[in-house]
Amino acid sequence: MSATEAAAIGLTHGSSEDTGLGHRGPESKSIVVPYGFWLFVLSDIVLFSALFATYAALSHATDGGPTSNELFDRTLVAVETLALLVSSFICGLAMIAAKRRNMAWTQIWLLVTGLLGAVFLAIELYEFGHMIHIGAGPQRSAFLSSFFTLVGCHGAHVTAGLLWIGTMMAQVWAKGFRPEIVRRLLCLSIFWHALDIIWVAIFTIVYLIGTLP
Amino acid sequence: MTDEDTELLDVAPGEPHDSLMSETISYVVGLGLALLLTAVSFWVASTSNIWGPGVAMGLVVLAIAQMGVHLVFFLHITTGPDNTNNVLALAFGVLIVFLVMIGTIWIMGHMNANMGPTPEMMNLQMQRG
Predict the structure, then answer these.
(1) CA–CA separation, A145 vs A142, rounded Å?
(2) Min distance A40 CA to chain B CA atoms (Å)
(3) What is the ipTM of this complex?
(4) Which chain A residues have a beta carbon less than 8 Å from that of B7?
(5) What mean pLDDT do residues B68-95 have?
(6) Are residues B68 and B25 in the same domain?
(7) Is B60 touching A (CB cutoff 8 A)?
(8) What is the predicted pLDDT for the residue at B92?
(9) CATH code, residues A28-211
(10) Which residue in the set A60, A182, A197 is minimally distant from B8, CB to CB?
């Protein structure tokens, strides 16, 4: 096949006008991989929307048991919110360092990100433990079942994120800033920021609206 | 510039190809706005200066604003040409989220209103159902 023929049917880059793939051909992996991961994150958010809808429908079905006003402590939630928000911010700083292949700062910021995530998780587990201890466990009422499902699902995501942060710290340390490692870091940061977005909805709908007088 | 450098710089979604300073400033601005919106949310929820029935709606608006801040400053979802796919996927995701949430709340609210003799009875029925 001559070069002109190849250009005419769109197999070369640059000169062909109507390949349907743009002038440069398919995008590079550094575009396609985060895009695919972004689609996963969006479908995860759709999953959470179903749990939010369940919670909204059942939030008054307390079966005579404790109500949201009696159970939730706004101070604890404020600390949780702050920990997760700053963690998300620090994760961004880790990405800035990783982009410049700065090993020390990437590791430090990832560690801080993980530690703040662990603080968030510890407070959440303390809250769950306290609620179960006073007889407000998930089996008490439909309201509490939906509460533990929604907030517990978010907590499970944070736990998975913590494991992922640890894995990425080890991978960056052992393998350096290879292109595939940098792509994984980028996916991790998208995941971590998305968890904070879901938490914004949780603290607003569950904790703040749930404790209005 | 080698091919590998291009690969590293050519990042998505919407990552600005800028200097260390401007990228850091973008995150700091995002953090500041998010902190401000969070503080306002907690204040709105605890103040008695605002008309009671409007508080819940106000909190939802603040939450949506904060999600927007996170999307723009942390996830770098922008209106730039290399971001079109991300924005379209986001728009579809938001559509589904609204359909699921508003649809459920609307229908379940009507079922609550039409089926139970009293709200208390309805609660008990929902327990067993």
Answers:
(1) 5
(2) 10
(3) 0.83
(4) 28-30, 179
(5) 89
(6) yes
(7) yes
(8) 96
(9) 1.20.120.80
(10) A182
